[in-house]
Amino acid sequence: MTVNTPALQRALDGRWAATRDDVRAQMGQLSLDPDPDLSTEEYRALTTENLRGLAESGRPQQGFDPAYGGGGDVGGVVTAFAMLGYGDLSLLVKAGVQWGLFGGAVQVLGTSRHHDEYLRAIMNGELLGCFAMTETGHGSDVQHLRTTATYDPATQEFEIHTPDAGARKDYIGNAARDGRMAVAFAQLITGGETHGVHALLVPIRDEDGQPMPGVTIGDCGRKAGLNGVDNGRLVFDHVRVPRDALLNRFGDVSEDGTYSSPIANETRRFFTMLGTLVRGRISVAGGAVTATEKALALAIRYGATRRQFAEPATGEEVVVLDYLVHQRKLLPALATTYALHFAQAELVADMHDLQAPGADAPEAAQRDLETRAAGIKAVATWHATAAIQTCREACGGAGYLTANLLPQLKADTDVFTTFEGDNTVLLQLVAKTILSDYGRRVAKLDVVGKARFAADLLGGMVAERTGVRAVLNRGDLRDRAHQRRLLVGREEHLLAGAAQRMRKALAPGADQFGIFNGTQDHLIVAARAYVDRIVFDAFAAAVEQVEDTEVRALLEVVRTLHALSVIEGDRAFFVEHGYLTAGRAKAVTQAVNTLCGELRPHARTLVDAFGIPEARLACPLLDGEKDASSAVTDPAPSDEEPSDLASVG
Amino acid sequence: MTVNTPALQRALDGRWAATRDDVRAQMGQLSLDPDPDLSTEEYRALTTENLRGLAESGRPQQGFDPAYGGGGDVGGVVTAFAMLGYGDLSLLVKAGVQWGLFGGAVQVLGTSRHHDEYLRAIMNGELLGCFAMTETGHGSDVQHLRTTATYDPATQEFEIHTPDAGARKDYIGNAARDGRMAVAFAQLITGGETHGVHALLVPIRDEDGQPMPGVTIGDCGRKAGLNGVDNGRLVFDHVRVPRDALLNRFGDVSEDGTYSSPIANETRRFFTMLGTLVRGRISVAGGAVTATEKALALAIRYGATRRQFAEPATGEEVVVLDYLVHQRKLLPALATTYALHFAQAELVADMHDLQAPGADAPEAAQRDLETRAAGIKAVATWHATAAIQTCREACGGAGYLTANLLPQLKADTDVFTTFEGDNTVLLQLVAKTILSDYGRRVAKLDVVGKARFAADLLGGMVAERTGVRAVLNRGDLRDRAHQRRLLVGREEHLLAGAAQRMRKALAPGADQFGIFNGTQDHLIVAARAYVDRIVFDAFAAAVEQVEDTEVRALLEVVRTLHALSVIEGDRAFFVEHGYLTAGRAKAVTQAVNTLCGELRPHARTLVDAFGIPEARLACPLLDGEKDASSAVTDPAPSDEEPSDLASVG
Prior knowledge:
Two copies of one chain form a homodimer.
Chain A: H1 5-13, H2 17-26, H3 40-57, H4 74-83, H5 89-109, H6 112-123, E1 129-132, E2 148-152, E3 157-161, E4 169-172, E5 181-190, E6 193-203, E7 215-219, E8 232-236, E9 239-242, E10 252-253, E11 259-260, H7 266-275, H8 278-303, E12 307-310, E13 317-319, H9 324-355, H10 363-394, H11 406-413, H12 423-443, H13 447-458, H14 460-465, H15 480-503, H16 512-544, H17 549-569, H18 571-576, H19 582-599, H20 603-608, H21 614-617, H22 643-646
Parallel strand pairs in A: 1-5, 2-5
Antiparallel strand pairs in A: 2-3, 3-9, 4-8, 5-6, 7-8, 10-11, 12-13
Helix pairs in contact in A: 2-4, 3-5, 4-8, 4-9, 5-6, 5-8, 8-9, 8-10, 9-10, 9-16, 9-17, 9-19, 10-11, 10-12, 10-16, 12-15, 12-16, 15-16, 15-17, 16-17, 17-19
């Protein structure tokens, strides 16, 4: 099988291939390899300069409303944003704060008065701003933020106030150095009544960069990574802003203080507002995928030239990527990265179609998008954390040197697992949604269906011992439909079990917190199984659409390796519940080994097809490629100890 | 159960409790919280200053030969060294390079002529040095280093030479800035014959700090962490050193160039030399354990005050450590850290007894120590990497701020998994040794024993289906003996399987490399099972010796959580091979949940008992402890969506 790299790249590039090519070319014009000894201030200044360079390119504008000079290309701009993951992640995050979070909030939570006044200045980077949501005391539980925005009809102003230390806005990007304005999230109070969290535009610095009266700005200082981003803290001491500072698409206050909203229910309104911000979460997942791709490109190319330990028969030192244990570290991670790449592309396309100007997205479709975004964000960022760590280790001491790029990738992406929604909390959210959907599906069943369903639920253990699942113990592990049956079987099983456990909480006098708390780990696993299945489906669907037969054949092997390594990773579940016999589970492990060997000759092609600009990978780690043809042969001393295992220093 | 923290600390402190207390007091006198914005040069200078402070304390001297003013307290000095993991890990590593690697090599590979001339200056920090083993092209495969030391009888000198770019000494601590001398490892050549790797003392800088003639010194630059350590590169261009620069305990060259050694076999000599350096590997494991303890102390104390999401019934926000998913992240990791703490203490004590001045360690005992050291180093450093990562995530955005100490712990310990022996290679080494021991055990069996053994091997699958393992499906999961039976069962099973697979390589015409390579993942798993068992044994033995009944009872719960979480982590194996039924495997998972709940009230006690100086934990993350008594109550809006799951920002 010879695979044409450009053809494979076309499959990966997908719908926004032209945008990807533009960004590849553009990345050559930015300073994306900051001197690692830059001070925090110097790195921040460089990142701000790069941000202005991005603004000048016109690229970020593409995501905004065409009525204000934007391109209306939401999918393109999110794709382009993620491509920055091949370069400097501080720039990626700073751009995400400015245009995705700050600009995005003004676009989707504001109305024409805000768009008229601010959108152009935001797009072209004249007005730098913050997304001031998280507080020191409330991160995951946004609904209970404590900052207040109290309406004063006498002056027709809101008073923004930080009532206690826990209500301080914290970890806010663009706050410590550059931001002039913040979209501040606060409990809206008018006429003594609270209407839940709303967003308001609050100036935080004047033209000279001095804090506005009543605004105290702090600096979060040095971080594990992303030190080009100026994260800071904001405390508001009775800061007054005009009535029209309220981003009033989903809730407004009239001059006399009367509150109105198109969505009567407070919680529903809150979730609708949050839902419009889904782009941020999708963008983080995209950045996690590209950063992982870069790390894998480095580690796999290094592994394909690095030699260590001589093969006794020939005396020639073995390329480390020819060792099974080395393949096992990198190739399943590569396969999963492919899966996430395609799942992410599908998510971006769906978001684009739902959020395109003029599109009137049905609520169910929007909710489904949010659920998938939350799940894929959690899985993609945890995968990034684990895979980049593995890539570092696979490069040994060289991988620890900043010059070889992996340390920065590791440190910068580390926070992805907890920002834009803590992954554990996100998976609980996913679990809750899929559980509700499941309940609705059950509710729609007729009498016979309900009876069968109840029997399934109660008879779970019985079914495990009967022939119901025997079919899963036959069939070809390489067959797409068979892989899917296993993944779906696990998902449905876990969902049914979770539903059964949660139903106990409905009994009178039940210890609701205790039951919910005791089910948490089960819910997380169920959510994970759901995400694994939708990622698999997205990957499989993308592969089916590839026309080049060699590329499709290769991608089918990659899909199989991904699916079987997911199944292998949770094979205890499959065996415990009768989906695989012990022998079949061992066959899965053996198949993963075999598939690693099959993909080994294509490893370089698979990472080249990401189309990462060569300048973004240039580092001493890859110097070995220059003389990879001159293999070192070394006559091993024929002694009583096999030299290929033993020498360790 | 009320547990007395000092009594628990005494159990943890063990044999070198007094040393630990001394170091705790001493840590207040060093600058251990470097400004995170220090330049690389400033941080290196600070670390060197701290190193001199350590030398003045007299502590490092305690590990050296009393004949030269040392204390002969190997165990004490390794214990003290590991305690630096509560402070600044750059200092820990720099001290390890100076006294453990450089000084240790002079002590154990040199003879009196070297001891007389250098030991005092090394101990008191006047002579700073390097351990120049690793080369750019050879890290794990030390036996095939390419630097040469060629004897010239005409001048009675060795010529040290770097023959090619791959032979450059790389990642060498103390090389880039401070080192005056290096213990350089090179292929010793005399009379045209090579005698394998030997160590020689090579001056690399003169009194003014300038490189010696023929020595080119490079700088590895910024790293992911440990930036207080000046890692560098050394290239030797026909550098001449006198004949007595050879550290000649295990191999010498006479004036006329005749080679002699007390160990005739070259490979055996090489491994004997390397074996004497086991202290470095044990020290790294110790540092990994203390760093993990510090990270857990931070995350658990934070989790015990941080509140998020209100309990619907009361409206009171829940302390995050009361959530099962949060306990699941931290408490099994804490239990395993306890296990590793005790296993490490046992290892240090055994090393002390074997290496004490005058001790004449039997070779088998030394080899066993090396095997255990390699295995525990691999498991402890991987555990550190994973657990510190989890601690960071468990603290959310706060955990990402350098001020909160976790980022530095993460970055500094990251390289532990690949230095002093790459973990994967170390586990292969362990596998090889335990496999040889297994072979010897089999060889000693009588005819009946051999027949039974062969039947066991060949009948593996049969045994799985018979009643042999049924006993493991009964018994109390909390029972120490039962836990051990499961761990031993897995270890023996994997070992037997590996032996069976490797025997195929002995067949005439067998593809040795292919068979070996295909078995690599099996070998790694077998080694891991061995390490899990010895760690369990060490923990269990230590618990048995505790006299305080409350402390012992608590530690038994901790031991059970550790054992069951190890078993849960590999429960696919136990189910696939009939050691646990599916139902019993689920019971293991349930028991882990229950044990987390049982240990929750003792979580603070368990981390306090590490006795980490409070000044080393002081950071904004723990500010919540100051007002932990004032719980925030927040009446949750009773709306259609349960607020404790849904709000995510």
